């Protein structure tokens, strides 16, 4: 079952968003309700203590006001939850299409095209539908791969062009795109907001990203020559992390004593501007962890296993290269270099001339020079005068001895 | 299927629940607002500084009490729906594997190296150029800082791909033009492509309703004549459609003719045949690789789990073989190389250990032959014949 093995992130990401929306909704509801309760209690007190019409009108008006706010907020936020529940549903429907297509491949046909002897018309239709699904899957995987590498524009163009935006995580990753842009410009603001927004989840996965941001802010203050402000910054933010990050905090504090162009490690690399790039990658990875997305993209896993499943020793031998074989393409064979070969327990032979399998219907025959071709190819390599020409070496024989080969 | 259904069940429950809560809460809040508004209106009729009448005070107290408990219910109900939400997550985890998460099939990720990422990006860019999706490919080249490239073969394919795409968007004109241009080649191949396209064009006319009836009939007279010998039955069926034209095709035997999939299938036949005629590779390398990989993954993942349980590692060893066979041939119908696996030693042959044909015609590997030889003679392991080592011949598959 292919979908079981590769579609986990497709569903899990919108689920995580749904779960988060649930929490925010609950928070909003509770906050609004408690405000309403306070207004209602005020009104109750008013009724008991100073029940003048004026006072009661005012208090009652307040309660109604709060009710209206509650109504609006409840509708908005539940609508939001429903939106992501529907995203999950939509993706499931898309994944299910594949299963239905594969299933209908095995159904018996009722409309036959006369000349199609290999496949019935209906199973051809099912194959076409399954292929279409695979094309969409490939585009989905590529979009996710691009998002992961930060090629947001390309991901966007591809998703819109192929109409698959809804079933990719582009919109969900819009926030992280903003954060990354901000980090690339050496700003921490948006990333800090993101940390606050996901505080409980980040704590659960033991993330140290917030500390890293605070540490970087501290370093930047020193870089700007504002050592005093740096100390204030440290007083404000570092104590919250003293349990896990004491060592890092000490290292950071020591920076106060060094000039920013120090050659001494580890302080030199702490001042390195490259740390921002690391921070960006770090954020990206933490974001994946948050959504429980694997660190390796499905595309990259699929490419590697796919190449392995196709790779044969013949891809590397000059006289058996095949221009249609992906692994024989120079670029791909470079990637393939270290990957495992496919396993082949039984000989699998095809005729080099007709590209048809060699079996009892197309018996393998050996030419005098040792090259094997299928029985069906013999007439193709025989010229008008009855001479047989080897298609590989151009050797020519008149009336050669072409013998059968038995493969067990 | 089962996996999808299980998750879908849970999701549907969540949707019903939220919709219910949304409706209930709106209703009860609306009700409260309208009751309280009535009181407010009646209070506004009274003298501003006078004391609120006792009866109203009592009634208001009751209403407020009710109001407090009602809004509390909204919160409680919403909180209780969390169980259904988390069930969705559990269903996803249970029915879909997140295995390659921590311990991947591939113990090292090739695409952690910049060089390999660059190659992969190049392959992806080529894949899009082939399809004529130049805007995607160009954007990738810019964003990933790839050197640009040009290749005539990509353009040839891109033209055909555009026609393919047009068919899937129900525009037959470019494909029909192409078919007319290559009609002699198609005829030589006994192709049914033109018929398939004409059939769709006719059906498309029918779908415009009774008004196009005359036009549809004229179309068949103009184009179906030459197909009558090969597709008599289909044409009968197509003309039969006219019976139901006024009443629609639901529940008639002709319904299946109007399925979307017929368009996809025709589009597929088009790309297959046109690529063969023009002489370009129909499949993109990336597509073949990724589809093969997705096909291989479940088996490899299962195996990995078994091996892990038995504390054996090594699903994936550099430059060795995968531990199991992934039969792409029967799944996708393609195979690019002959692999001869020695029936004695069970290893694939290579240039150092080539296949040898014994005098009797049976083939074994050279290494196997040397193991079986006694003196200068060798008995074939598959038949009673004996032959000399020198009589064995190296062959190339």
UniProtKB/TrEMBL annotation, chain A:
<dbReference type="GO" id="GO:0008270">
    <property type="term" value="F:zinc ion binding"/>
</dbReference>
<dbReference type="InterPro" id="IPR013144">
    <property type="entry name" value="CRA_dom"/>
</dbReference>
<feature type="zinc finger region" description="RING-Gid-type">
    <location>
        <begin position="325"/>
        <end position="393"/>
    </location>
</feature>
<dbReference type="InterPro" id="IPR006595">
    <property type="entry name" value="CTLH_C"/>
</dbReference>
<dbReference type="InterPro" id="IPR006594">
    <property type="entry name" value="LisH"/>
</dbReference>
<dbReference type="GO" id="GO:0043161">
    <property type="term" value="P:proteasome-mediated ubiquitin-dependent protein catabolic process"/>
</dbReference>
<dbReference type="InterPro" id="IPR044063">
    <property type="entry name" value="ZF_RING_GID"/>
</dbReference>
<dbReference type="GO" id="GO:0061630">
    <property type="term" value="F:ubiquitin protein ligase activity"/>
</dbReference>
<keyword id="KW-0479">Metal-binding</keyword>
<feature type="domain" description="RING-Gid-type">
    <location>
        <begin position="325"/>
        <end position="393"/>
    </location>
</feature>
<dbReference type="InterPro" id="IPR045098">
    <property type="entry name" value="Fyv10_fam"/>
</dbReference>
<dbReference type="GO" id="GO:0016363">
    <property type="term" value="C:nuclear matrix"/>
</dbReference>
<feature type="domain" description="CTLH">
    <location>
        <begin position="172"/>
        <end position="229"/>
    </location>
</feature>
<dbReference type="GO" id="GO:0005737">
    <property type="term" value="C:cytoplasm"/>
</dbReference>
<dbReference type="Pfam" id="PF10607">
    <property type="entry name" value="CTLH"/>
</dbReference>
<keyword id="KW-0963">Cytoplasm</keyword>
<dbReference type="GO" id="GO:0043249">
    <property type="term" value="P:erythrocyte maturation"/>
</dbReference>
<keyword id="KW-0862">Zinc</keyword>
<protein>
    <recommendedName>
        <fullName>E3 ubiquitin-protein transferase MAEA</fullName>
    </recommendedName>
</protein>
<dbReference type="InterPro" id="IPR024964">
    <property type="entry name" value="CTLH/CRA"/>
</dbReference>
<keyword id="KW-0863">Zinc-finger</keyword>
<keyword id="KW-0265">Erythrocyte maturation</keyword>
UniProtKB/TrEMBL annotation, chain B:
<dbReference type="GO" id="GO:0034657">
    <property type="term" value="C:GID complex"/>
</dbReference>
<keyword id="KW-0963">Cytoplasm</keyword>
<keyword id="KW-0862">Zinc</keyword>
<dbReference type="InterPro" id="IPR013144">
    <property type="entry name" value="CRA_dom"/>
</dbReference>
<keyword id="KW-0863">Zinc-finger</keyword>
<dbReference type="Pfam" id="PF10607">
    <property type="entry name" value="CTLH"/>
</dbReference>
<protein>
    <submittedName>
        <fullName>Uncharacterized protein</fullName>
    </submittedName>
</protein>
<dbReference type="InterPro" id="IPR045098">
    <property type="entry name" value="Fyv10_fam"/>
</dbReference>
<feature type="domain" description="CTLH">
    <location>
        <begin position="157"/>
        <end position="213"/>
    </location>
</feature>
<feature type="zinc finger region" description="RING-Gid-type">
    <location>
        <begin position="342"/>
        <end position="383"/>
    </location>
</feature>
<dbReference type="GO" id="GO:0043161">
    <property type="term" value="P:proteasome-mediated ubiquitin-dependent protein catabolic process"/>
</dbReference>
<dbReference type="InterPro" id="IPR044063">
    <property type="entry name" value="ZF_RING_GID"/>
</dbReference>
<dbReference type="GO" id="GO:0061630">
    <property type="term" value="F:ubiquitin protein ligase activity"/>
</dbReference>
<dbReference type="GO" id="GO:0005634">
    <property type="term" value="C:nucleus"/>
</dbReference>
<keyword id="KW-0479">Metal-binding</keyword>
<dbReference type="InterPro" id="IPR024964">
    <property type="entry name" value="CTLH/CRA"/>
</dbReference>
<feature type="domain" description="RING-Gid-type">
    <location>
        <begin position="342"/>
        <end position="383"/>
    </location>
</feature>
<dbReference type="InterPro" id="IPR006595">
    <property type="entry name" value="CTLH_C"/>
</dbReference>
<dbReference type="InterPro" id="IPR006594">
    <property type="entry name" value="LisH"/>
</dbReference>
<dbReference type="GO" id="GO:0005737">
    <property type="term" value="C:cytoplasm"/>
</dbReference>
<dbReference type="GO" id="GO:0008270">
    <property type="term" value="F:zinc ion binding"/>
</dbReference>
